[in-house]
Design a protein that fits this description.
Strands 9-8-7-10-11 form a five-stranded parallel sheet, with helices on both faces. Strands 2-1-5-6 form a four-stranded parallel sheet, with helices on both faces. It is α/β, with parallel strands linked by helices. The chain contains 21 helices and 17 strands. A hairpin with a 7-residue loop joins strand 12 and strand 13.
Length: 659
């Protein structure tokens, strides 16, 4: 509100300066102060058109072009013309005036910008029928924000300065609620601030200024393409979140020598995560990573840089050259270095698999140890020849225990049988034969194999118990970590889903909600990861938490134990979602209550003002009646004496008496 008045005031200022100014079109909407501000400015008559039996008026572009003023005032830039006009939109009429050399001062509401149409509809619940491309407004030489607080605007409406009295109540309770007005005001401030920022960047480029100007906080996070950099991104997001109005820019420097760098899949996941958290992703090509990063930060007028510290033994021993060079040459930048320990601590816990005692990798390593260790021990024992059969079997038993600890049951059984065969062949009479000459030696071999097998089983069971204990601890830790995250990031469902996705090693995860109108349709409430499933049939694993909510995962099917834990995590996510929904409903009710209270106070103030005016009017009316009303009768005669007009031939005073 106030744009048309400000436009007319600008026209009056320019006219007073000697500029030839005309009104091409103005919409005062019956507002007295706006009409008064237009007085004295030349008005080009409108063009009358008939559409569907009704008369409408539009700006007469030909008349303005024929008049050829220096400046034309044209209201409501986003207006759609009546069918039959030369141009569909008023901004197209304005472009004709600009092409003819006529400067134009126009007005626009923030909700009519095309790029903000979806945001405005989500905030207000109203889809704007008239929109204008942002590029049209960006071409303006000057953009002025006509600002007013929501409270002041609502007071103007209550006092009848905006709408007729019969429309005020509906407007205050619908579109012009304090929350709507505050959100639209913030959009306008941010959009104009971005235009100011564009002008600042253009000025810096034209004048060759490379030193950062801290007019706005911009945090640059450098990504190398490693799989553990999600914690680095989230850390940068938290830094940006502590600074209102700051920007987050993620950048990856790719090599320009044709060598294969980071995994594109990993970078795609990083890009999706950055954009889902409100940042922007960039990629530059250069051989010198540190210099390219600093050049990017200078070009974007950044103020802070977030880097990942040393990773790997070689980097920890020799130092990270990129981090060292960026830190040394940062100049006016603040540099944050997130070390490996911080990143590992920030990562979500990953559930260990429950299959097998010690895992497939250790199984194969146990077999390799069996194949290598037993021949080596046999060669050594053959060379020494002093332990006796009992000592030699004890040495083999130690080897079997070692294999059992490393590889589990089956490699240990193979080692026990192999050790028995080698002992029989090399150390039991007759030597170099698998036959046994003495019964005692055969009994010793059988006992050896039995003991080795028992030891292998004991080690395997111990490993399984340790794995189950680790699994239980990991499950408890995952649920506790998710609960803590739900309490800390109550409004950040994507962050909670990201922790669940990381915990189970999934590619993508979605929280689906059933469409109330069609139970067969689903829509995504929140998601994490690239290409999240939008329907249950597109997921590898589905967990139905309630009749309306489902957790859909992509990245391979999960076993029964993982599904059980995932169901518990899904319950936490849904609880967080319901808490957020309840909180928003409470905030909406609270906002509506505040709105109703303010409206009641405004109406009460207006009623008080009206009562005072009525009382004053009644007093003035009573005074007017008393002037023309005959005086009331008095008891007894009253007389007044004094000089009177002398009668003809008389100079005496006269007396007036009335009863």
């Amino acid at each position: 509100m106030g744009k048309t008045y400000a436009m007319l005031a600008e026209g009056q200022r320019r006219r007073g300066r000697g500029t030839d100014v005309v009104i091409g079109l103005v919409e005062p909407h019956g507002r007295r102060l706006t009409a008064q501000m237009a007085q004295g400015l030349e008005l080009v008559p409108r063009r009358t058109m008939v559409y569907r039996g009704l008369e409408f008026t539009e700006m007469d572009v030909d008349a303005v072009l024929a008049r050829q003023p220096q400046v034309a005032l044209v209201d409501e830039l986003a207006h759609t013309n009546i069918p039959g006009c030369r141009n569909e939109k008023r901004w197209q009429d304005v472009e004709e005036l600009l092409d003819a050399g006529v400067d134009v001062v126009s007005t626009l509401n923030i909700q009519h910008l095309l790029s903000l149409a979806d945001v405005v509809e989500e905030i207000t619940g109203v889809r704007q029928a008239e929109t204008i491309p942002d590029k049209v407004v960006r071409r303006a030489e000057q953009v002025e924000l006509v600002d007013m607080t929501p409270e002041a605007l609502r007071r103007r409406m209550v006092h009848g300065n905006v709408y007729p009295p019969d429309r005020v109540e509906v407007a205050l309770t619908h579109y012009f609620r304090p929350g709507n007005l505050t959100a639209l005001r913030e959009l306008a401030l941010l959009w104009v601030a971005d235009r100011v920022e564009e002008g600042l960047q253009r000025y810096r480029a034209e004048h060759g200024i490379i030193a950062p100007w801290e007019t706005k906080e911009r945090i640059v996070v450098a990504l190398s393409g490693k799989g553990d950099e999600e914690a680095l991104i989230r850390r940068a997001v938290r830094i940006a979140g502590r600074i209102p109005g700051s920007d987050l820019l993620a950048v990856h420097v790719a090599r320009d020598d044709g060598r294969v760098g980071a995994d594109p899949v990993v970078l795609g996941g990083h890009r999706a995560l950055v954009e889902s958290l409100g940042g922007s992703y960039h990629q530059v090509v250069d051989m010198d990573v540190a210099e390219a990063l600093l050049e990017f930060a200078r070009a974007e007028n950044a103020t802070q840089i977030v880097l990942g510290g040393a990773y790997g033994l070689l980097h920890e021993l020799l130092g990270d050259r990129v981090v060292a060079r960026v830190t040394r040459r940062a100049g006016g930048f603040d540099v944050h270095v997130l070390t490996r320990e911080r990143r590992e601590r920030a990562k979500a816990p990953v559930l260990p698999p429950l299959t097998g005692g010690l895992g497939r990798g250790r199984f194969w390593w146990g077999l390799v140890l069996t194949v290598v260790l037993l021949p080596v021990l046999t060669v050594m024992l053959t060379a020494v020849r002093g332990f006796g059969l009992a000592g030699e079997l004890l040495v083999y038993l130690m080897a079997v225990v070692g294999v059992a600890v490393l590889g589990g049951l089956y490699p240990a059984l193979v080692a026990a049988l192999g050790a028995g065969v080698l002992a029989d062949y090399f150390f039991v009479q007759p030597v170099h034969s698998l036959t046994v000459a003495r019964v005692g030696d055969g009994s010793v071999l059988v006992v050896f194999v039995a003991v080795a097998a028992v030891v292998s089983v004991a080690v395997e069971r111990s490993a399984r118990r340790a794995r189950r204990h680790a699994r239980a601890s990991a499950e408890a830790g995952a649920l506790a970590d998710l609960a803590t995250s739900a309490l800390r990031d109550r409004d950040d469902l994507p962050a909670l889903l990201e922790r669940v996705r990381t915990t189970f090693g999934l590619e993508a995860l979605s929280l689906l909600q059933r469409d109330g109108a069609d139970s067969r349709r689903w829509f995504v409430t929140a998601s994490s990861g690239p290409r999240p499933p939008e329907r249950p049939e597109l997921a590898d694993t589905e967990v139905l938490v309630t009749d309306e909510l489902m957790l859909a995962a992509r990245g391979g099917p999960l076993d029964a134990d993982d599904r059980r834990v995932l169901h518990g995590c899904a319950a936490q996510v849904v609880a967080s979602w319901e808490s957020r929904l309840s909180r928003r409903q409470a905030e909406s009710l609270s906002e509506r209550a505040v709105s109703d209270r303010r409206r009641a106070e405004a109406l009460q103030a207006a009623a008080s003002d009206l009562e005072a005016e009525v009382a004053a009017a009644q007093g003035r009316w009573s005074g007017c009646e008393s002037v023309g009303r005959p005086r009331p009768p008095r008891s007894g005669p009253r007389c007044a004496t004094g000089p009177s007009r002398p009668s003809a031939g008389s100079g005496r005073s006269s007396a007036m008496c009335w009863t």
